[in-house]
Write a structure and sequence with these properties.
Length: 92
């Protein structure tokens, strides 16, 4: 099973090399990531992709510390795969 960092690297690497994939990643992140990694992304999960430029900077803050331990655990690990015998599901 790939680690979260390996999955990120795979998606970013493909977007760097493949202009069509990059365009799809920007317009339909869940579909593009799901297809590339062979996973299903839950409908309850929002995925946003931002393209850096010379005039924009993106800062991602960690979750608010007022979240419960369970909430924090659900979001602090990046993303990974949960598998069963029939499907792969992306958990962020």
């Amino acid at each position: 099973m790939e680690t979260p960092n390996e999955m990120r690297a795979k998606v970013v690497g493909k977007a760097t090399e493949d202009a069509d994939f990059r365009a799809r990643l920007l317009s339909d992140p869940k579909g593009a990531i799901g297809q590339e990694l062979g996973v299903t992304i839950p409908a309850s999960l929002s995925v946003e992709v931002h393209e850096e430029s010379g005039t924009a900077a993106h800062l991602i803050l960690p979750p608010d510390s007022k979240l419960s331990d369970g909430d924090l655990q659900a979001v602090t690990g990046g993303f990974g795969l949960v598998t069963d015998h029939h499907r792969r599901e992306l958990n962020w």
